[in-house]
Amino acid sequence: MSALTLLRRRPAAWVHRPFRRLTVAWITANLGDSALYLMAAVWAKDLTHSDAAAGIVFAVLGLSTLLAPVMGHLVDHASRRTLLIVGNLIGGGVVCLLFLLTADRLWLLYVVIFAYGALGTLTGAAQSALLRDMLPDAELASGNGVLSTVDQALRLVSPLLGTALYVTLGPHAVVALTASCFVVTALLLVGVRQQESQPEPQIDEGYLRSAFAGFTHIARTAVLARTTVLIAVAFAATGLFNVAIFPVIQQGLGLPTAALGVLVSVQGIGAVAGGATAALAISRWGEPRVLAIGLTLLALGGAALLTHSVIAAGTGMAAVGFGVTWIVVAFVTLRQRLTTPRMQGRTSAATMLALNVPQAVVTLLGASLISVVDFHWLIGVTVVSIAVAAVAAFATKRPAMPDAAGGGATAAATGGVSAGEPGGQAVGF
Questions:
Q1: pLDDT per residue as tens digits for the range 340-356
Q2: Which of 24, 35, 49, 222 is most buried, judging by how many CB atoms fall within 10 Å of its CB?
Q3: What fold does the segment set 15-193+207-411 form as a domain?
Q4: d(CA 160, CA 152)
Q5: Which of 298, 279, 284, 269 is closest to 137 using CA atoms?
Q6: Which residues contact 315 (CB under 8 A, 6 or more apart)?
C-alpha cells in the first residue's frame, strides 16, 4: 500500500462524532502549545545569554509531572470532559502571567512553565481517559494515530508561526496566541458529548495508595512495565539533548537560536508520515515491535546531528519525527488497552511521571555540564542510550489482542501516554 493511499484512507476512529470534535479541539490546543514551549526556551536564552537557563525550561517542564499522581487521581474520580474545559481555561490565565516577565524576573518564567506543565499532565490524562471511553479497542491505535499526527503536523506550522511572531512582534505576541488558543479549546470542548465510564466504587484504601495505583498496575503488567522502563531510559537520555540543542544549532550548524523552530517544523514532516502509518504498523506487527523501530529511528536521527551538516540534521529531524510518533502511538495504545477505564487517569499520570522526571533530572545534569563538556559527547551518550533501549525493545513479545468487539464505553466492565501527553520535550525527543 502506497504512502499516498495511506494518507487518503479515512481513519477508523473518524466515524465517531465525539472523536471528530475532540480532534478539532486538539488542533487549537496544539497550535498555541507548540508555539509557546519552544519559544520559552529561546526567550530564556535571549534574556540571559545562557544555554543552561534555556535548558532549565525543559527541566522544569519535566519536573511538573511530579504532580502526576494527584492529577491522575482527580481524572479517575471526576468528569474528564469537565476537567479538560476547566484545565484549558486556567491554562490561558496562567500563560498571561508571562506578560510580566523581564530579565530580572526569570523565576516567573519557570513558575509559569511548571504550572503550565502540571495542567498539561491533567488535561493529557483526562483526554487519554476520555478517548478510551470513545473508542473500541480495535480503533484505539487509529485514534491515537490521528491525535499524534495532528500534534506533530502542527510542528510544521506552530514553530514557524511562533518564530515569526517572536522575531517580528516579540515574545508577548506568542503569549497572546497561546492564551487565546487555550480559551478557544475550552469553548470547543463544550461541544464534545460522550458518555463516560463510571468511577470505580470507593474503597477504604487511603488517598496515597489510590493515587499511586497507576504505578502498581504498571508494575504488575509485565509488557507495560518493560516498555515503560525502556522508553524512560531513552527519554531520560534525551535530557542531554535538551541542553545540547542550542550549541548544536549555533556551533555545529552555524545558525541562530530561532532556527530551533525551523528544525522542529522539519521534524513535523516525518511525524505526519509516522502518524499516518502507525495504526497499520501496529495491526501488523504489534505495539512492542513498532515501538522498537521508532526508538531505532530516534537514535539514527540524533546521530545525524553530529555531522554539522544542515541537510543531514534536517533529514535526521524528519527521522526523529517519524520515530517519536511511532513510539508514542504504540505506547499509548498498549497502555490504554491493558488498563481498565477508571484506572486510565492514574496509569496515564504514572507513565508521565516515569518518562518525564528522569528526563528532567538528566536535563538539569546536562545544564551543569554544558559549560565544561563538549556538546558532541552529550549527543553521543544520548544516541547510545536510545540504541540500547531499542535493542531491548525488539526482544519484547507482543501481548494478546483483546476481542475487537470490546472497548469504548461498552467495555467498561471488562477493562488506556495520550498521543498528546508529554514525554520527551524539546524538539520532540
A1: 888 888 898 888 888 87
A2: 35
A3: Growth Hormone; Chain: A; (1.20.1250)
A4: 13
A5: 279
A6: 304
